[in-house]
Amino acid sequence: MINLGAFECEAATGSEIDREALLAIKAQIRKDPLGALSSWNDTLPFCMWPGVTCSLQDQRVILLDLSSLNLEGSVSPFIGNLSYLGGINFQENNFDGEIPHEIGNLFYLQSLNLSYNSFQGEILTRLTNCSDLKQIDLASNNFAGSIPVSIDSLPNLKLLWLNRNSLTGSIPPSLGNLSSLVVLSLAANSFEGSIPDDLGRLTSLQFFQLSENKLSGDVPPSLYNISSISSFLVSVNRLHGSLPWGIGTTLPNLRSLWLGMNQFTGPLPYTLSNASLLESFDIGANAFVGLVPDNLGGLQNLLNLNLERNQLGKMGTNDLNFITSLSNSSRLEVVVIQFNNFGGPLPNSVANLSTSLKVLVMGGNQITGSIPSGIENLINLNQLDMEQNLLTGTIPLGVGKLSRLNKLILSSNKFTGEIPSSIGNMTLLNELQLQSNSLWGSIPQSLGKCQDLNLLDVSQNNLIGTIPKQVISLPSLSRSLKLSQNLLTGSLPSEVGSLINLGDLDISRNEFSGEIPTMLGKCITLENLYMNDNNFQGAIPSSLSTLRSIHRLDLSSNKFSGQIPDYLQDFPLLQYLNLSFNDLEGEVPKGGVFRNASTISIYGNRKLCGGIPELKLPNCTLKDSKERGGSLKQKVIVPIVSAIVILIIIIATVPVAYNWKGYSIKKPVFGSFMEDQYMKLSYRELCIATNEFSSDNLIGVGSHGSVYKGILNKDEKVVAVKVLNLENRGALKSFVAECQTLRNVRHRNLIKVITVCSSVDFKGNDFKALVFEYLPNGNLDKWLHLEEDGQNHLHKLTFTHRLNIAMEVASALEYLHHHCQTPVAHCDLKPSNILLNNDMSAHVGDFGLAKLLHEIGDSFSHNQTSSIGIKGSIGYVPPGTVLSLLLYSF
């Protein structure tokens, strides 16, 4: 009886210690956005607290699982008091700081998972006291220092994940003493030196990953003899040597062999086909030589074959015999053999490869022959790349049957004939490169059906005719449109104004004529514009003044006349300007790009004068100066006098008009969005705040951009940064709409805008972002579909929550429709655009489709049969109906 009471007393004391330790752990949590630990209090026994598992007999904590709860904080040293703890899982949170030394006191600990957090400091030497440990996962943190030499004090360790940290030093040979080790992952660190030969004693090893380090030397031969290995991943290092001849026999369980981006040499072993389970073979960017074994077809489970950037092949007729063998690999999805020494004809058997094939890349070789018509059999192909070879013949019509193709790259060959109109059937195509061939005929109008096309390059061919309007009006063209070095004629169609997202336009070295269409000024994202070596004429239009993103502009060797526009010196990103060999006249500007003679070329324009002295042009006469800017009276006095007259009329008439209607004069709603009350933030500051817009900070992706969580250094304020993806159609319009709306609205249930940023990034690309207050409970849509997503949230929406949210959204809409200076229709109200703060209070956001109602009204009054741009609305929709639809949709 006495002994039993002593045991009960000891158990009670131990339980109290566990309870206090758990509360101490909770106290170190700074943020708990999901309320996961809110029930860690006296209302429940601690063994019933979420994430806590106790033993049945003595009610001691044996497992602590707080994974994927978005917790933020550090780990309390009191965790060392949970003396019976066998498992810790803090995976996928925002924990930081160092691992407490006290974890070394947990002698029963078998599993420690702290992966995907922000822990730092060194890996504890005291962790080796936990001799029962079987699993350590510290992946994706900020741990530094080296691996403790005493790691071999963990004889039961089976899994060791240390990948994606900042570990340095050499790999300790003592790892070779962990005879039970099954998984060893040290990838994406900064380990140096050679791979220890001692690792060859890990006879139970299955997953071996040392990729993305700075390792050098030969791979120890003993590693190639561990028959249990299924994944051998050492890519992106400085390793060298050759593959052992019997590798396919000594590694019979091999499924993945990644050796890419090293310095391996020698031939590929013929026995490789004996590794019949091999699924992924990647040796890209090494120095392997010789013929590829023609028995690779024995690898019937092969999915991915990457041989790119080696010295394989002998530029002989038998180089591609292995392609025929690969037709037996029925699961094959990726074949990449580009930039080697493969020669000889392209075998017809390429059309017999697996119908599961998605990527076929053979560019940068010396392959001859033609593309077999049977290529259409590869029905699941996403990418076909045969650039920079010696292929001849025509592009087969059957290529149009590859309906899932995204990329077709056949550039730098010797193809002849016409561009097949059947290419227009590939409606998913986003990249078409046919440049540097000998194609003739016209550009097919059917390419206009490729509504996802963002890059089209047919330059350096013998194409004739005009530019089809169906092609020049493709709004999806965002990266590049290159038609240069052909025999194209006619004018540049005004439909070019549809290319509002285009980055590069090159129509140089053709026979185009006429004037530059004013609609070209709508291509405001253009960075490079080449129109040189044509027959364009007339003045350089003022409409091009909107192209403020331009980096390089070449209008040389045409027949342009008139003066060099002043606005060219105001382009902030312009680095190269070529206006040579035209008929331009008058004074050369001296500002902007014109300050540096090495960045401009104006040769062959005999009527130019002035400019900087380095240009060595004659001085301008008084007549030239007057012609450049017009007379002083025209350029200065007339606009000033006109402005004064207009201002007087406005001042005199506006009060009368307002008083006559019974209105009071209100402060105008127009003006700069960036007034004094808004914080001014640069691209650099936002880059720092969001950890360089890292995926770890990404909290949402929409149709026009991405939203990142950030912390501003100025006041440690947590914000949400919405970065517009300007390559997407309508993104710029969405940005402008959101700015116009948000500068006019203020309400407790509307998301609060902190500022905007319109700048350029470090590469000189346009950058536009909106910065909002951060609302930690996410959007309403996620809360409404917790069960469908299978998430185990502790708090679900109660009826009271739902009622309050409905009332708050209704309040916001009532304000937008009736109490703004200019009423606003949101046009995209849905649960995912309703955000919740800590108190579950609703805030309406995302005004990218918003319309000011006076604009909608004006639109209807002018044309009742046109769409007003409301998503999903076609035909006539009265403004009142817009408001009703918003309420109904909510």
TrEMBL record:
TM region positions: 636-658
Membrane topology classification: Single-pass type I membrane protein
GO molecular function: ATP binding; protein serine/threonine kinase activity
Entry keyword set: ATP-binding, Cell membrane, Glycoprotein, Kinase, Leucine-rich repeat, Membrane, Nucleotide-binding, Receptor, Repeat, Serine/threonine-protein kinase, Signal, Transferase, Transmembrane, Transmembrane helix
The keyword Nucleotide-binding appears for this protein: yes
Family that this chain belongs to: Belongs to the protein kinase superfamily. Ser/Thr protein kinase family.
GO cellular component labels: plasma membrane
Residues in Protein kinase domain copies: 693-890
Chain sites annotated for binding ATP: K722
EC number: 2.7.11.1
Name of the protein in question: non-specific serine/threonine protein kinase
Localization in the cell: Cell membrane
Major site of localization recorded for this protein: membrane
Species the sequence originates in: Cinnamomum micranthum f. kanehirae
EC class: transferase
